[in-house]
Amino acid sequence: MKNYLLYIKIVCAISGSTVLLMVFTIITMLNGYIYLKPFAFDQEYFSFIAISYEQENSLIIQKSNEDIRNIVSADDNIIVVKLSSDYGETYLYDPSCYYANTNYEGQYFSKEDFVSWQSNSVMVDECSVYHQMIVDGKLYLNGEYKKAIATYQSDYPLKFMGNSGYIIEPLSSSPSIAGTYYLSNCNVSLAKKVISSLSKSGYVIETLHDPDRIEDNISIVLGKIEFLTLIPSLLIIIFTDFVTLRLLFSRIRRLLQIHSYCGATKGKLFLFIWNETVLAIVIGTIAGTFIGSVILYGFFNEWSFLSFGISSFLNIVLLFFIVAIAFLLEIKCNAEKGW
């Protein structure tokens, strides 16, 4: 009898871990990464993709660069992170030197590297082949020598997963306008001006994240295949937990009968079962939180206490109802058999 109680605890512990991971992933996708700001942004951000379906003209690139420079120069606190179309390199506009105190070796870009719109300085991933190509503090890149002013590791905030270039340069060094843009520390109107300018230059804009239109972000997420597979997966896990618990509860029927004959009500029987399972659920939730933290930090270099708090609460509530429904159905089934 005790073995089956142990099995129930194990099932609840595993469920607590897997369900939490699923619930947290769904919450993260639904909120449009409100809590998971990329590149360690400390404020809300805008994100969009600028696409060119024709060969980019050098004159258009020069004009667009000038327009963007004029727009963003109105705010010294703005941060612009641009990923090239093939994620080969990361381009940065950071006149306030927001990332100057983050983890790297060497010196950070000066304000002049950004505001003068002319710079040949680069930061290089310490683990990349480019780091081995540095000679006398210089790196030959795209037909010219660049000054390698610093090296950074995989935990650097500007390191983007999937980035195959491992190079960070000032935004002015970008040979193309097309790419994925992230704007933070700026107001709505300024971000809209950048988007409008790129649109007028002939680039097609696809919005990824707009804090003023979070309902659009949610609709985009709802249409993603990743999200569409999460809901059925969660339902399958919940159904499997329910069926497994029903089977295990049927195996402790005699134990429940003994308690019932001794005067235990349905409420007391459920309280007995809940006392047996709640610790396992909490342990499973903690384990899920730890696993999720490791995974999330590996992908984004940060994670949200609030998101995990909400997910943990919903996880415990959800498992409470699974245990309750499975148990009450077992009690009802036994009552109909003449307990």
Give a quick rundown of the structure.
The protein is α+β, with helices and mostly antiparallel strands and 339 residues long. The protein has helices spanning 2-30, 58-72, 111-115, 129-132, 188-200, 214-222, 225-251, 253-261, 266-300, 305-336, and strands spanning 45-51, 79-84, 90-93, 105-106, 121-125, 138-141, 144-152, 167-170, 179-184, 204-209.
Global Rg: 27 Å
Order of helices and strands: HEHEEEHEHEEEEHEHHHHH
For the biggest sheet, the summary is:
10 strands, mixed
Q: Which percent range describes the beta-strand content?
A: 15-25%
Number of helices: 10
How much helix, percentage-wise, in residues? 40-55%
Measured distance between first and last alpha carbons = 19 Å
| Helix/strand/pairing category | alpha+beta
Mean pLDDT across residues: 78
Shape: elongated
Quantity of strands, as a count:
10
Which residues form runs of ≥5 with pLDDT under 50?
Answer: none
Keywords:
single chain; 339 residues; alpha+beta; ten-stranded mixed sheet; 53% helix; elongated
